[in-house]
Amino acid sequence: MKDNYDLTNLRKKTKRKNSRTKGSTFERQIAKTFNDRFKTKEFSRSPGSGAFATTHSLPEYLKIYGDLITPKNFKYCIECKKGYNNINLYSLYNYSSDIWKFIEQCEKDSKKCDKIPMVIFKQDRQPTIAIVPKEVVFTEAEKYIEIHKNKTYKVYLFEEILKDWDSMWLS
Question: What mean pLDDT value characterizes the chain?
Answer without folding.
Answer: 87
